[in-house]
Amino acid sequence: MSKYDQYTGFQVHSPDTWTTFHKNKFDVKPFGDHDVEIKIECCGVCSSDVHTISGGWGEQKFPLAVGHEIVGKAIRVGPKVTLIKEGERVGVGAQSWSCGECRQCKNDNETYCPKQMDTFGAVWPDTGIVTQGGYSSHVRTHEHWVFPIPDEIPSHLAAPMMCAGITSYSPLVRNGAGPGKKVAIVGLGGLGHFGVLFSKALGAETWVISRSHSKEADAKAMGADGFLATQDKDWNKEHIMTFDLIVSTANSFGEGFDLAAYLALLDVHGKWISVGLPEDADLTIKPQSFMSNGCLIGASHLGSRKEMLAMLKLTAEKGIKSWVETVPISAENLSTTVQRLHKNDVSDLVEVRDMERVGSLGSELRSKRIAALKTKP
């Protein structure tokens, strides 16, 4: 018998069998003074999960339960916890710990903490225990990385906001998206659709850039003001030097991807911010591409606690709703779901479950509009 507390979750045993899930017990770190124990209600299935279990992002520590878009109930709080109350409905994202002492942590940049720990796949130094994600019965997380969910946001809609939502929201607010600004979102998957929803809610003129016109109707239904398809001849000609910000959510760059054509869209000192993380993708950048407009290239990683709470507040106030599908959870359905995601059939997924019973698993469709459904356990 283990000397540590244990939870139950769906784990993958190796990249060679990444589509096979096993319901296992696993050790969790000792409960700390600032910890919150959460009984999980729902958890998103993110592209990051697939990149991780398939080995696309390198070596991982198996067996591993992934999932870092978690919503559930705080059933226990440590004696020094001040940010969360027992019984609250809360969320947890892709990061579960930061040192709280470094320059980054003290300046609302805790997602860039040199000692930060991920919600799954990280190792607690004192115990060697590997953090396990939200395809599980419970999660134990430092209070700073646990976020109260407003009553106005249903759990299955809040879950994908814990990663996809904040990943899209943070670069928008940090780079000035708002009234009088023109913003382009590259890609209309899980990240991209949040980019459109939040950019519009912040008051910016919002365009979508995609390879073809297949998602144009969806983009307009989400509120996009315009749409550019790079398959069209001279697709950028009428918009050169008119955008203040481009946020790239692309999960892949096709053959012949022309970064210079995108950068040409930016106004003087406009910014290209990358949040998508394609496997084995290289961007070819020529110094000449910067000269005509002095544009800047950067990236963004998740978002601070301050930004997460602001995003949830905006969502509640504006009634923002992501596009979600739900299906029952099981090892078999998890296998089907990650394979759909791998094939770009869906963009993000949302699991809703009680681990003692059968719950439900949901998904954000990439290019097909679907009513938001939530199957009861």
From TrEMBL:
Residues 190-316 form the Alcohol dehydrogenase-like C-terminal domain. GO terms for biological process: alcohol metabolic process. It is an enzyme of class 1 (oxidoreductase). Its cofactor is Zn(2+). InterPro entries: ADH-like_C, ADH-like_N, ADH_Zn_CS, CAD-like, GroES-like_sf, NAD(P)-bd_dom_sf. Homodimer. Belongs to the zinc-containing alcohol dehydrogenase family. This is alcohol dehydrogenase (NADP(+)). It comes from Xylaria arbuscula.
